[in-house]
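Service request form, structural biology core

Requester: graduate student, group of Dr. S.
Request type: structure prediction, single chain
Budget code: on file
Notes: please return the result as structure tokens.

Sequence provided:
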Amino acid sequence: MLPAEYGVDPLGTGRLLGLTDLAGGTTGAIKRQDAAYKTNTASFDLGPYEFVEFKYRLEQGATMVYSWDATGPVIYDMHSEPDGAPAGYAESFDKAQSPAAHGSYTAPFSGIHGWFWENPNAKLVTITLTTAGFYSSAQEFRDNDSSFHPLEDLKRR
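Core staff response, request fulfilled:
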């Protein structure tokens, strides 16, 4: 008789005793990623009524944990642009006016995923974004210009 913890259970005894879970099958709690785990922190100063977008390149199923805080309430839209979508197309996942947001995001499709922030106030607002996840690039969009931000790869520490 072969042990059920190695995935062989011809009599079903291992399944009844709960031993087949030891065979390495996933139950949905573990999700392997192809990309290396990276971290990023970025800050943005927004003058009165200015805006900025900051997006990450994630493949379908990749996850990112995020936390951002602003020194005052901002209008934001967490959205994604799928690969191959028409110019200007985006899907929104979280829109509100707030001085902060924290959570996790799993990309429903490959593309660029991130935030649009707008300062609706007459005072300067500073936004600080911290993320960690399985993305390959980070890009800031402002005033019809864009620039890439460096990412920290935890494998190279």
